[in-house]
Amino acid sequence: MIWQIEIIILVIVIILAIGALSVKDLLGAAILFGAYSFMMCLLWAIMGAVDVAFTEASVGAGVSTVLFVAAVFRTSRRTED
Amino acid sequence: MKVGVLVLVIILGSVLIYGSLEFPPWGDPASPASSHLSPYYIEKSLEDTSVPNLVTAVLADYRGYDTMFETIVIFAAGMACIFLLRSSGKEESGTRLYRHIPTGITLRIEKKSAFPEKSEAFERIDSVWVPHDLIVKTTCRLIVPFIQIFGLYVIAHGHHSPGGGFQGGVILGAALILFAISFNLRSAIRRMGERLTLMLSTLGVFIYAGTGVVCMLVGMNYLDYSALAAMLGVDPVTARSHGILVVEIGVGIAVMSVMVTLYYNLASTGKHDEGL
Fold it and tell me: How far apart are alpha carbons B274 and B199 in whole angstroms?
């Protein structure tokens, strides 16, 4: 695998993780977490774990984002801390 | 407080990174994990189970017991969500919003007896989330069957390509969730009600555990699918492949219905009435 792509994806993963933790808007945090999951999915695919990548794409980036959005929709959108 | 937490996290993180330095290099064939059991799986799984996808063979056959309890964990998550969130919705306020379809006028109706439930000209709309978007509805209605077919393909083709019960079940559940988002929660519940999802989630776990029990009744070990050879009329190696398929179907059913249950309860705060 081209190592530059791997480095870029790793940097994006770290940026997205910090962003998902620090952002005040919970809906934005949910979306950032979905993007984080998708980047992790790409990393799994690069490492050759295609089954794990598939699971990460469907569960992490797909359904769990929807569940987070549903929870945000039913509670509050802004966090206190 | 915040600084202390940050310092603690940094210390723990550096301990973790220090610990990971001792790991064998990624993909090292001489590492302990790759030198005892992995060669057997890599060399023998096709002879043993006639499943080309190694991951599926390991997941559903060699460590099928483990995967069964993963399915039960998913099932327990769905049950926990129901216990925490589900409420009958009787304490709801009596007002509902209805849209008169020919004119597009929205009516707020307060009296319970005057709800136009049977009328064709009125459709009920949610009080907080009122999309009236023909393009979104039509697109989602067109896409949902294809997503479902893809989910079935992922379950059935898990022997040969990445995928299997978990992923296929999640995709099938996501198709119904997409339908619920693009239309509304009530039309999704009308198509797949709470009773049906609960029955399906138990049925999935039951299929998995029942396959193991059938293997035991024939006289072999629990979840040793080669016991199904006489029943299916094939040789023991093919029977293991078929047994994996049966188990994957069970996992798919359970995961799909649990995902749908989670969404129903989260999006409607357990009332199963108005939702996202």
Answer: 23
Tokens representing residue B20 in the block = 């990971």
In-domain check, residue B7: no
Range of the domain at B257: 49-86+130-267
The verdict on residue B156 lying in a domain is yes
Please report whether residue A79 resides in a domain.
no
Give me the interface pTM, i.e. the ipTM.
Answer: 0.89
pTM for the complete prediction?
0.87
Please list every residue in chain A whose beta carbon sits closer than 8 Å to the beta carbon of residue B167.
51, 54-55, 58-59
What's the token pair of residue A41? 């999915």
- Chain B neighbours among A 15-74 (CB < 8 Å)? 47, 50-51, 53-55, 58-59, 62-63, 66-67, 69-71, 73-74
Q: Per-residue pLDDT tens, chain B, 276 aa: give them.
A: 789 999 999 999 999 999 998 888 877 888 887 888 888 888 888 888 888 888 899 988 899 899 999 999 999 999 999 999 888 765 566 778 888 877 878 778 877 767 777 777 787 877 776 666 788 889 999 999 999 999 999 999 988 888 888 999 999 999 999 999 888 888 888 898 889 999 999 999 999 999 999 999 988 888 888 888 888 888 888 899 999 999 999 999 999 999 999 999 988 888 887 777
Residue B182: CA count within 13 A, CB half-sphere: 17
The answer to whether residue A81 is domain-embedded is no
Distance of residue A19 Cα from the nearest chain B Cα, in angstroms: 16
Residue B230 lies in a domain: yes
